[in-house]
């Protein structure tokens, strides 16, 4: 009998399987196996908030297989992710398998490497019910809010709306920023720049700063021209020159929040994409036998800790010394302090092995995987390097009683900047009346009292900018600063409010929709606690308290329900006779019959564009996603793919769609024309039964299999991938075994096997 290891993800299972011997079997639960029912609340509020969990629909066969494997195993190791969600999945698995809590064997690892996995196997522990209860409390809180508020919104606003505990706060943040932008009144101001010539003939610029009493602002053209008239065509004298050295320290290694912010700014990735790619890097990728085969490339990617293991620090120091020299290493390893209230269960996000340089494995990664891995690798290695030394200079020039200034810096010792520099925050804006610091400034030799000739003066008018709209990066930063949500929830928060159409993307920015603004207004009036920043942050602290054993799940839920029940009752009474007008969502489509801007309506077959002057004008148009110009600009990876063949029934274009079992092709006129065709990929191997092509298909649960293109007329199919090579012993077709680096003969009696390099 073998030992059984249960993880969530098939790719994670594949990686771990390669680290353990033949005495271990590794299978995947594919996420949660139990959850609250969708059709009912599933929480007995009167009975200490007891949750009624059921097996997730569609996972019956999987659960049956897991039970069978567990029954035949000597030991069952629960190896789900090392956080609250992972602990809860392990608890649900143990409950489903009938394993008593005291006999559970829970193992966790911060990185999926051979040494980490084997070390974890040697030290199993019981399931931590404090962690489980912290996850349960969040799940139950969110279920109560969602299932109690949604009917309230259906009744008073519109059917189909829903509300979430943290998502409602995120919507409020974006709505209030939009209100700030609308209310913003631009303020006029002026700048005056002069061109000055040094003794060596080089010309450089300086900006108006003020007078001898200090800094001044130029609020009007009159103020600016007063300065221009005083200095125009006159010589300037050098009033001060200050040179200094400044040390600039590297940024800390990534947390979930900072990784999402930096990857958004530098790579242009959306948060959902960032976390998906990070998950792939964490779970393991085959990077070639010369690099160790299948490897988990980064540590666990859901963390708010800045802690780094001493082993990783030593490995980084060794690499930096060999690559850059000992002067690029600080005297002692760098230690970064985590934010107050952060969980220290995991390290910061770092490469699991510093010696696996991004360039060495580029050919084994997708373009996006390489970009994110390089960003994580560069950031971590730079965080362990010596500070940069900058030579700074600030020079003041006097003329006509006014002071002009120029400042900047040059890099004297690059330190960590030889590898990496942190990008600027999206929301950080430098006002044009500030003296901007110039990088690598080149000034002529300057001495106090020296006279410089003026080569021109340039007054310019400006207006102050409104606060910028939130991007995904700046929203995540704000949520973290306010203590709203946790590393594992940021992506879900953003994707949910967009999916509910409370917020839409315009380019990189997040903009509230009319229905989002209306719902937010209603929530602020009726449920002030739910959308209150401090209240939501306090709930996060209370959930953390459950994890730490300081609070009980029943106590936290009971305290919340007591206030929420009163608010719900008051809101229902206050709005029982209210009529709420829902603002229409405009498109960029102009009605060709009357010239009005068309609006979005919901019909039997989904959304369509209609003239707002109905019934006087009854013009309508079909909407093909994206619905609006703004959505079109921000719709990443959702472009319509047109097939290279026509509909076999009506001759129209055929487009790719996403269905229950993965991508498929359908007539563009669907459902009027019901032609569909499963998406397949020719793998260049002839069918061993009829000689036609073998194609790759996507089946139930998005699993990949292979079959004859003439299936079901020809019944050849296989879970393993056939290859063009024939068996040298019997001439039968060879297969590449799924998840393995081996070719096997189709003829089981032959038994031929051959290892293959990836």
Describe, in plain words, how this protein is organized in 3D.
The chain is an alpha+beta fold and 758 residues long. Helix content is 31%, strand content 24%. It has 17 helices and 36 strands. The protein has a 6-stranded antiparallel β-barrel with strand order 9-10-16-15-12-18. A 4-stranded parallel sheet has the order 2-1-7-8, sandwiched between helices. A 4-stranded antiparallel sheet has the order 21-22-23-24, with no helix packed on it. Helix 5 (129-156) runs antiparallel to helix 15 (533-547). Mean pLDDT is 87; it is low at 626-639.
Features:
single chain; 758 residues; alpha+beta; six-stranded antiparallel barrel; four-stranded parallel β-sheet; 17 helices; 36 strands; 24% strand
Mean pLDDT: 87
What about the largest sheet? 6 strands, antiparallel, barrel
Structural class, from helix and strand content?
A: alpha+beta
| Share of β-strand residues | 15-25%
How much helix, percentage-wise, in residues? Answer: 25-40%
Radius of gyration, whole Å: 32 Å
**Judging from the principal axes of the Cα atoms, what is the shape?**
globular
Give the terminus-to-terminus CA distance: 31 Å
Number of helices: 17
How many individual β-strands?
A: 36
Widest sheet: strand ordering: 9-10-16-15-12-18
